[in-house]
Amino acid sequence: MNCVKAKKIIEESIKKSQFIGVIVPCADEGEVLQQLKQLHTTYPDASHIAYAYQLKTDNGLVYRFHDAGEPTGTAGKPIFQHIEGKQIINVLVAVIRYFGGIKLGAGGLTRAYGQTARQVIEAADIYPYIEQVTVTLTLDYKQIQPLEYALKKLDGRIIEQDFAEQVRVIVQLPAEQLNTLLQSFPEHY
What we know:
Elements: E1 2-4, E2 8-14, E3 17-25, H1 29-42, E4 48-57, E5 60-66, H2 76-85, E6 91-98, H3 105-123, E7 126-128, E8 132-139, H4 144-153, E9 157-163, E10 167-174, H5 178-184
Antiparallel strand pairs: 1-7, 2-3, 3-6, 4-5, 4-6, 8-10, 9-10
Helix pairs in contact: 2-3
């Protein structure tokens, strides 16, 4: 599985229609909906905003695609096929179309949407997906600095800290590094 580092946009003209490809990393469906709302705000006069997304959830992979008024199967599905082909998760790919007056036909639409999706995916910075885990530790104050040092070596980070008599920290790190961390702080898990 792969992920995308940052949002990327490409533009292309096909038979006088303008196609704009957008790829955006998204952690959940709420973020997908927020990004789609933003696209509709940014491109209010677009003829169509077709999209596809795929997310990794606790219940497995969730994916959806939408033709946005284009003939069934000519926009969303070709976009999704490129996401699936590159095994990208936690991503939204949208193709915005401004109709240029020349009808492309079903085959032409499928090629245009698929080609735009492929190009924006190729333009994006793609990296391997690393499963992250979140763990809560309760530590003495003097253990915070060693924890920060350990997390730096393990590609982890502190998400939340609560300071009281002891420090309660919530950390996130690659799943494969969890045992190493817990061996360093065994009595605090």
